[in-house]
Amino acid sequence: GAVVSQHPSRVICKSGTSVKIECRSLDFQATTMFWYRQFPKQSLMLMATSNEGSKATYEQGVEKDKFLINHASLTLSTLTVTSAHPEDSSFYICSARDYYEQYFGPGTRLTVT
Amino acid sequence: AQTVTQSQPEMSVQEAETVTLSCTYDTSESDYYLFWYKQPPSRQMILVIRQEAYKQQNATENRFSVNFQKAAKSFSLKISDSQLGDAAMYFCAYRSAINYGQNFVFGPGTRLSVLP
């Protein structure tokens, strides 16, 4: 099946710094990519939806200036957490969709100290 | 807006036995997809099974099968011959077949433990 990769798998950063997470569709072109956040023992919460070459659409309550999403190509989307704080510590999952199917990346654990 | 409910936060099953996870959903759409995803401790989301709403036949994938009751808006997952590797969080999910750009609507999840 199709593969979605995320890099890095784990990242620790200091409070106030920015961190970038990459999401790549390895063997297909993704028309749409989704970014989720998952807290421990909870379900996935959609943060934003992005289409290649367009601005991302953010869900209500998600700060677009804090969580910058760039969908530069049909195989790459990035999520940048700017001026990270400890409350941004979480598990971030990307998902990529071709016309019919949607595939999930393995996730990135972000810890802000 | 669509909603997905999983009323069992936790379930347990003895190895080799059968367990059924419940899921109900609410929608006004007539065409949609329903999914069960497994999230093991690695946190990778794994598609277990998918059902198209227009198909009356229940989907099956090896030891996994669903009971899809469209009128009742119910979509339960049956795991037969449970194995230790089935222990995970299971999420029921809905996706519109009409509004292509719409994201999944996930349920809150059911944590399944498999007892040796």
Global outline of chain B: globular
The tally of beta strands of chain A, per DSSP, is 11
Main beta-sheet strand count, sense and barrel state of chain B: 6 strands, mixed
Largest sheet of chain A: 7 strands, mixed
User: What structural class results from the helix and strand content of chain A?
Assistant: mainly beta
Number of helices of chain A: 0
**Percent range for β-strand residues of chain A:** over 45%
| Unreliable spans of chain A | none
Order of SSEs of chain A, N→C?
EEEEEEEEEEE
C-alpha Rg of chain A (nearest Å): 13 Å
Structure class of chain B: mainly beta
Note the overall shape of chain A. Answer: globular
Termini separation of chain B: 41 Å
Chain-averaged pLDDT of chain A: 93
Bin the strand percentage of chain B: over 45%
Q: Using CB atoms under 8 Å apart, which protein chain pair has the greatest interface?
A: A-B, 16 and 15 residues
* Tally of contiguous helical segments of chain B: 0
Point out poorly predicted stretches of chain B.
Answer: none
Tally of DSSP β-strands of chain B: 12
Can you describe what's shown?
The complex is a heterodimer of chains A (113) and B (116). Helices cover 0% and strands 54% of the residues of chain A. Chain A is built from no helices and eleven strands. The model of chain A has no long low-confidence stretch (mean pLDDT 93). Chain B is mainly β and 116 residues long. Chain A binds chain B through residues 32, 34, 38, 41-44, 46, 49, 91, 93, 95, 102, 104, 106-107, and chain B through 37, 42-45, 91, 95, 101, 103-104, 106-109, 111.
